[in-house]
Design goal:
It is a single chain. The protein has helices spanning 11-20, 29-33, 40-44, 53-60, 93-100, 105-125, 187-191, 193-210, 233-238, 241-252, 259-268, 278-292, 298-301, and strands spanning 3-7, 35-38, 63-64, 69-70, 73-75, 78-80, 84-90, 128-130, 141-143, 149-156, 162-171, 174-175, 181-182, 215-220, 223-228. A hairpin with a 5-residue loop joins strand 10 (149-156) and strand 11. It has a 5-stranded antiparallel β-sheet. Strands 3-4 form a two-stranded antiparallel ribbon. Strands 5-6 form a two-stranded antiparallel sheet. It contains 13 helices and 15 strands.
Length: 328
Amino acid sequence: MVATVTALGAAQSTVHYFERDGYYARDDPEHRRASFWHGRGAAALGLRGHVRPKRFEAVLAGFVPHTGIRLGRKRDGEHQHRPGLDLTLSAPKSVSLEALVFGERRVVRAHDEAVRETLDWVETELLQTRGHDPATGRRPRVRADGMVTAGFRHLTSRDQDPQLHTHCVIANMTRNDAGAWRSLEWTRLRRSERLIGAYYRNALALRLHALGYAIAPTLIGRVPGFEIAGYGRPLLDAFSGRRRALLAWLAERGLPYTPALAQAAALATRRRKADLGLGVLIPRWRERARALGLTRSVAEARPPRPLDPETGRRAPRGRVPAPALPAN
């Protein structure tokens, strides 16, 4: 899936997950660049730069930095607060291969920019909290002001294949119109998974087009998607171990491919990530491609820019327009 929205468990277990799987800043620069704070809510709280475990855990536990406020409620003597949501945005396989196997770092930047733009759109269009109507006592859903998101970009799947994706942990923390800090009401956000994926794909495709890439339409299940042109199915399949494992699990049980069953298969075939580092993995990936005799067609992936009939020069690369709002 291009976009998944998953409710998080306890704050401490979420932090341990990201620590264990190597998402936090470490000694090498790649890890320092891989995490970030994002959103108007995060900016208002002074959360910036890469994500530190202690502050991350406190935010997920409902502590609003620098305010003395803790969101949630007491029940039977225990504090209860749902940490938030994990919105994961995954690039198409050809984009991961172009960025990591064939070394186009600008493609990683295009993904990062598309992720941030998607988060900005989610913050503006989908973020809600609960209001209060004193006349009726009802608590209707209302627009929220400001998202607090910790982002963690990673470059591999659990099978150690190239897989460019970013976990965007949306904390259960926002402001209402009066500026008071409140918990999120995330029904709309969770129901908008496909819409969020469509926005991300559109934002990414526009940036790749601006870099000179040709885009080939495809389907992700029944959902429209794309790959970079010039990538044959054998090359994509050779680096899609997670998908092969998922499909094999479904086939063994005679089950169809549906979003719900695909998620069940993903959990059943889940492996712990081994943090080998790109210095080890990239040579392995390139050697695998050479051994299989696989490569992409550069002429198809990045066709020559057309000539301007008046000047005889190549047309400049396009700018990145704002994505059109996807149809719900």
